[in-house]
Design goal:
Layout (H helix, E strand, L loop, with lengths): L2 H11 L4 H9 L3 H8 L10 H11 L3 H9 L15 H23 L6 H27 L8
Length: 149
């Protein structure tokens, strides 16, 4: 199992509503999608369009990030949406930081760090970086006066 297999599998299984919810959003059967994202299944494979649909539905770009890395590229989002407020941006970034700690705690509980756990942690770190970028953008674009005097 390589990093791409892991990213595909984790994207499908960590979707809101699980794999079944993702299958409904994509308009396909859960078993069909399960077969396509299973790294050990050689007869059913995910198409590029299905991978894009998965990323759109989950807002998880880890598949794209792994492909970019495999090809020697780095992936950087063009523009991040600002949070509704600086407070929201700070709270979002703090929540993602906590999620990293939780992910690491779960991964090392058994004294081992598997490739799947390593991929999940790096994906969570990427999400946290995205929230910090959104915080930076929100602060940069915030009006000088945040409330009336």
């Amino acid at each position: 199992m390589d990093q791409l297999d892991i990213a595909i599998h984790q994207t499908a299984h960590s979707a809101k509503g699980g794999l079944e919810g993702l299958a409904r959003m994509m308009g396909t059967g859960a078993q069909v999608l399960r077969n396509k994202v299973c790294p050990s299944n050689d007869t059913h494979k995910l198409t590029i369009r299905e991978a894009v649909a998965m990323m759109d539905a989950t807002d998880d770009d880890s598949i794209l990030r792994v492909i970019a890395e495999m090809r020697g590229y780095t992936l950087e989002r063009k523009a991040l949406p600002d949070a509704p407020s600086i407070i929201d941006a700070v709270l979002n970034a703090d929540a993602e930081h906590g999620a990293i700690a939780h992910q690491i705690r779960e991964a090392i509980a058994d004294g081992k760090l598997t490739e799947a756990e390593r991929a999940a942690i790096t994906n969570q770190i990427k999400r946290a970086n995205d929230t910090l970028d959104a915080l930076r953008s929100t602060v940069t674009n915030a009006p000088t006066l945040l409330r009336k005097s």
